[in-house]
Amino acid sequence: MPFRVKGIYDPPSPEDGLRVLLDRLWPRGLSKEKAQVDWWAKELAPSDGLRRWFGHDPEKYPAFVRRYREELKENPALARLKALGEEGTVTLLHGAKERRYNNAQALLAILEEGSLTGEGGV
How, if at all, do strands 3-7 and 18-21 pair? Predict the structure, then answer.
């Protein structure tokens, strides 16, 4: 699956393909025109409770990925995301300053390992 990760504040490029924002809140100070988001997938973002608990703490990242995977089970939006990935490149966008430990990187790892099951699973 041709998924990749990029920060929402990074300039869009033709190589991005379809741009999918994975945050529940719109990024501060960024216009929708400048962001060039094709799908604001709020439903694929981690819950507020999980996001607050994690706080981009690298030590909590493995547990965050496990908890996020559990939240994503039974999520019908995953089927749509997977189908889009089968059609071409999909860039998973995040608003975090942290480049390595964020929900987009976690979702990419989950998609690549194919560990979700159930309705809408990958």
Answer: unpaired
- Residue 58 covered by a domain: yes
Q: Which of 21, 93, 103 lies closest to 60, judged by CA?
A: 103
pLDDT tens string 26-81: 999 999 999 999 999 999 999 999 999 999 999 999 999 999 999 999 899 999 99
Helix (H, G, I), strand (E, B) or coil at 91: strand
Instruction: Let me know if residue 118 belongs to a domain.
Output: no
- Phi/psi of residue 45, nearest 5 degrees: -75, 150
* Residue pointed to by tokens 């819950």: 47
List the structure tokens of 37: 């988001």
pTM higher than 0.70 for the full model? yes
Element (H, E) at 51: helix 48-54
Domain that holds residue 94: 3-113
Cβ-Cβ contacts under 8 Å for 43 (sequence gap 6 or more): 75, 77
Q: How far is the C-alpha of 72 from the C-alpha of 120, rounded, in Å?
A: 9
| Number of Cβ atoms within 10 Å of the Cβ of 85 | 19
